[in-house]
């Protein structure tokens, strides 16, 4: 993949900025997958459920618990979106 070149394409298209962008976006994707995987497993831990009043430690209805857990996991999504915005702007500044 990296050694095959299109003979009609200029050699400048495969520069360090391209590979830096691929590397950074790959890291961001890995970090997001890690975050989503961790919140999924953390939500099943008894200490997590006790802290947030979920599962057997709750006096809320099942629907209310599902809403609360949905809000907690949505905060992970919001954090990854805000982190992406920050990293995109910092990457754009460093490649100018």
What can you tell me about this protein's structure?
The chain is mostly helical and 96 residues long. The chain has a domain at 46-96. 70% of the residues lie in helices and 0% in strands. The chain has 3 helices and no strands. It has helices at residues 16-42, 46-52, 62-94. Helix 1 runs antiparallel to helix 3 (62-94). The longest helix is centred in the last third of the chain and has 33 residues, at 62-94. The model has no long low-confidence stretch (mean pLDDT 81). This is Major facilitator superfamily (MFS) profile domain-containing protein. InterPro entries: MFS_trans_sf.
Describe this protein with a few key phrases:
single chain; Major facilitator superfamily (MFS) profile domain-containing protein; 96 residues; mainly alpha; rod-shaped; MFS_trans_sf; 0% strand
Total helix count?
Answer: 3
Strand/helix succession: HHH
Q: Give the amount of beta strand, in percent.
A: under 5%
For the residues shown, what is the average pLDDT?
81
Say how many strands there are: 0
The coarse overall form would be rod-shaped
Low-confidence stretches: none
Tell me the major beta sheet. Answer: none
Class inferred from helices and paired strands: mainly alpha
First-last Cα distance: 27 Å
- Backbone CA Rg: 21 Å
Measured as a percent range, the helix fraction is: 55-70%
């Amino acid at each position: 993949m990296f050694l095959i070149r299109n003979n009609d394409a200029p050699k400048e298209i495969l520069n360090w900025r391209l590979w830096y962008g691929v590397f950074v976006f790959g890291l961001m994707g890995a970090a997001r997958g890690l975050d989503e995987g961790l919140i999924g497993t953390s939500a099943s831990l008894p200490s997590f459920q006790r802290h947030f009043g979920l599962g057997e430690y709750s006096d809320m209805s099942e629907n209310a618990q599902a809403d609360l857990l949905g809000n907690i996991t949505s905060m992970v999504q919001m954090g990854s979106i805000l982190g992406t915005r920050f990293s995109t702007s910092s990457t754009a500044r460093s490649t100018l």
